[in-house]
Amino acid sequence: MNAALNTLKRAVFGLSLLGLAFQVSAQTQVDDAWVRGTVANQSASGAFMTLTADSDSKLLSVASPVARDVQIHEMTMKNDVMSMGPVKSVDLPAGKAVKFDPNGYHVMLMGLTGPLKEGDSVPLTLTVENAKGEKEVLEVKAPVRALTNMEGHDHSKMH
Amino acid sequence: MTALLTRRKVLAGMGVLGLGLLAGCDTRGQLSYKYGKDLSDKILGRTFKLKDTDGNTVSLSSYRGLMPMIFFGFTQCPAVCPTTLARAAKIKKLMGKDGDRLQVIFITLDPERDTPEILDAYVKAFDPSFVALYGTLEETKATAKEFDVFFEKVPAGDTYTISHTATSYVYDSRGELRLGLSTSLSAQECTEDLLTVMEVC
């Protein structure tokens, strides 16, 4: 029983080392990336994800072949008025998971080259810069989820 | 002859009013909502005229007998518009059979980019019963003003995005404004308040 557990522990440790090896060049982790689907002729949509940098960094820009222009926007709600607009960069404090979701920051894909269908995969290229001014380029494949999904609404509820 | 017709119209009007009273539609301002904002003291949305995606000119009275829930937005909105429409679709399901009387109406604040084709495909992706309305930029401005809805273009690169009021406005089946639902409410919370409106009218 114990031996089995130890073997398992060793295996997990080994795997985590392997994980570390892959992470050496990438200081920023991207989780749960997805893009909202569109209907025909809709020319913009949003991309969402969670970014975690291992040292104080900032997300400088995002590019994608599916859109003519990709911008980072911030959405805020005040008195039920939704305000939106582009931001120059987004701070990624060391070790903190920064969410890009329908309640705050998001990546705007503008001037779409075609409709985004559920199940498609959208390549995103993220440029992150750390405090030393070193740039890191991350390639992400974000799956397209249904236009109608409620991600970021029910999950934002605290009860 | 003309006078007679007018008298008939008046009588008919009184009859309709009487029916309304009998049906218990006279409790303006007396309903208590658990989550939404009571808007029954406000007069909003009485005179707007816009087009639906089939090109028909419609006003609030076009939806008499149904419970209209009106939301303003634009299809290039990545966050609050789709989540609010998805919530509306969920509300309709949660309401069960009563959901057949809920008429979700999406009014575009971006008539320059939201063509009737895009609007129709967009709202119907959420629920086939949802309708989208549009007007000229002037009509859109006038409608927003009538609802006290704020909206403003925000430059974004060589294009723009739109900041706007995200409240859903709920009318009873006689076209009386009842309720304002904030985007922070869940589908379940909205459903409870909508059923309260339905109990009276």
From TrEMBL, chain B:
The keyword Metal-binding applies. Signal peptide: none annotated. Keywords: Copper, Disulfide bond, Metal-binding. Disulfide bonds join 77-81. It comes from the Bacteria. One of its GO terms (molecular function) is metal ion binding. The keyword Disulfide bond applies. Cu cation binds at residues 77, 81, 164. Belongs to the SCO1/2 family. This is SCO family protein. It comes from Pseudomonas koreensis.
